[in-house]
């Protein structure tokens, strides 16, 4: 029986991996305005600091901040702002050159590109598509009656939730002749929020200061 070739997938984190810097805070500042952003940031600073040092729940802190910051805004405003911001990020091209080169190599090899990020899907989707990704996942904001609640729909896309998104996509996109074990996965990430994703991959890579290094398990 002929050997079935493996499906090859390259998974990339976004902020700090593909990009040189965080993209979420600048987006929220632009969307909410300086006064509201600073007011909400100061109000939630203790919880966010505790989460950052591992003494609090990072996902809960992020959600409470977003509820206070963007809750009550029309959904359409966020969508429009996301499209505009995606164009800005692509225009500025503040990407890590080595990572973009590696992404292009994967694409040239015929590998499927997937971007998985804790940043908001309203701009991650468009940027990932422009970079040639077959699929992208970002954190989604809950909407009720076309109004943002600020809560995270489906949770914050970091840590184990990144693996959950990837495996859910694999389960729905694999044909009957190919199991998950029939996939060969490369993964690239820069933070502890990518640890589970790197562990899930066959070829884990850590990005630090824009440089790619094979990660140790």
TrEMBL record:
Database matches in InterPro entries: HAD-like_SerB (IPR050582), HAD-like_sf (IPR036412), HAD_hydro_SerB1 (IPR006385), HAD_sf (IPR023214)
A Pfam family that the UniProt record links to this protein: HAD
Alphabetized GO MF terms: L-phosphoserine phosphatase activity; magnesium ion binding
GO cellular component assignments: cytoplasm
Stretch list, region Disordered: 197-217
GO BP term, example: L-serine biosynthetic process
Gene3D superfamilies named in the record: HAD superfamily/HAD-like, SG protein - dephosphorylation function
NCBIfam families per UniProt: HAD-SF-IB, HAD-SF-IB-hyp1
Protein name, entry field: Unannotated protein
Lineage: unclassified sequences, metagenomes, ecological metagenomes
């Amino acid at each position: 029986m002929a050997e079935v070739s493996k499906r090859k997938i390259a998974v990339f984190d976004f902020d700090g991996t593909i990009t040189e810097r965080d993209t979420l805070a600048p987006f929220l500042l632009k969307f909410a305005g300086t006064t509201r952003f600073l007011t909400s940031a100061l109000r939630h600073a203790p919880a966010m600091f505790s989460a950052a040092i591992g003494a609090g729940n990072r996902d809960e802190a992020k959600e409470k901040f977003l509820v206070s910051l963007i809750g009550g805004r029309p959904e359409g405003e966020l969508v429009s702002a996301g499209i505009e911001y995606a164009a800005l990020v692509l225009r500025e091209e503040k990407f890590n050159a080595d990572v973009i080169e590696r992404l292009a190599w994967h694409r040239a090899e015929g590998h499927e590109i997937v971007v998985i990020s804790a940043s908001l899907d309203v701009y991650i989707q468009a940027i990932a598509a422009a970079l040639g990704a077959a699929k992208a996942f970002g954190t989604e904001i809950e909407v009720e009656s076309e109004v943002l609640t600020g809560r995270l729909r489906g949770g914050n896309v970091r840590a184990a939730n990144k693996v959950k998104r990837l495996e859910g996509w694999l389960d729905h996109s694999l044909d009957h002749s190919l199991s998950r074990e029939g996939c060969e996965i490369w993964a690239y990430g820069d933070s502890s929020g990518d640890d589970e994703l790197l562990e899930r991959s066959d070829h884990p890579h850590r990005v630090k200061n824009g440089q790619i290094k094979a990660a140790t398990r």
